[in-house]
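FAQ: What does the model actually see?

It sees only this:
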Amino acid sequence: MALKYADISIEIREITLKDKPAEMLTASPKGTVPVLVLQDARLGKMVVLEQSLEIMHWALHQRDSAGWLTSDSVLTQQLISENDGSFKQALDKYKYAIRFPEQAADVYRTQCEIFLQKLELLLNQSQFLFTDKVSLADVAIFPFVRQFSGVDLAWFEVAPYPKIRSWLNKLVTSDLFVSIMQKRPTYIK
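And it is asked to produce this:
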């Protein structure tokens, strides 16, 4: 979303993780996605960005017409860090509870709710996480909340998170999100 929002033209290569192209592994031996490969004219060499947040920051520093970075504060960074840490860990266990039989799925869901409660409180203050307009925090966090909502949609629809549901709906129905969710053919090596 950040790349599209910043109006940066890129070649998107949809890959199958079970059959990673050699080109990708050469650029990024860790073999995970996303990977953004840039030719840096100033440095005269290729630069590889391998983390979503790193790619978002790079894109927004190129162009940030609506001020997504305006609310990029210590609080924003802490919230994104919690999302990428404890929430993501609990989310993975909730999504794949069968792989983590130590606890029932609802235990993992309850662990996720610790973070959701923080989001709900923030959304009681404004339409988006820190202001009344979309920011870096919203775009970095909502894909994970979207995943969470899809694990048990019937539960999520009646859960005590009306502000999160409204926020999520605004983001997933936004023209920007809809425009990037186009299915692409798998890249053939």
